[in-house]
Specification:
By secondary structure, the chain is mainly beta. The chain has one domain (about 20-140): Quinohemoprotein amine dehydrogenase alpha subunit, domain 2 (Lipocalin, Beta Barrel), CATH 2.40.128.120. It has helices at about 1-15, 30, and strands at about 20, 35-40, 45-50, 60-65, 80-90, 100, 105-115, 120-130, 130-140.
């Protein structure tokens, strides 16, 4: 009986998580638009906005993290109320991600495309610039 409860618990855990997977060329048409959510490092969070401006390779994108002051106390050299990176060279990688390299060493990557429990599309990725790396999760607006 305990084994059955354990197996049911594991199945329910997987069923309740977000489905996310590698990004393919077929997914590009659905990426164009504005995505909003949160960026985080440890327990600190900030607002994240990702704009995908076209749907063909190379992708054009802009990542903006606002309310950066919430990251105070972390090892960041970021200043001001927002931090942004823009790139017109977003490429699909052999790992099924999309990598954007912007000016000044700023980099952002879309690691996965998935759906939440209600079927709403979700993108997950990371952003790096000026010594700070944050993870983010956004939904399409």
């Amino acid at each position: 009986m305990k084994k059955i409860i354990w197996v049911v618990g594991i199945v329910m855990l997987f069923a309740s998580t977000v489905f996310a997977g590698a990004i393919t060329k077929a997914d590009l048409a659905n990426l164009k638009g504005t995505w909003e959510g949160n960026a985080s490092i440890g327990v600190a969070t900030a607002s994240m906005k990702l704009e995908i401006l076209n749907n063909t390779i190379p992708l054009e994108g802009k990542a903006t993290i606002s309310n950066v002051d919430r990251f105070k106390g972390q090892d960041f050299s970021w200043t001001g109320e927002y931090y942004t990176a823009q790139s017109s060279n977003g490429m699909l990688t052999n790992k099924g991600t999309i990598m954007f390299v912007g000016e000044g060493g700023k980099v952002f990557e879309i690691r996965s495309l998935g759906k939440d429990k209600s079927g709403k599309p979700i993108l997950e990725g990371w952003f790096y610039g000026q010594g700070g790396k944050v993870d983010w999760k956004v939904t399409k607006k």
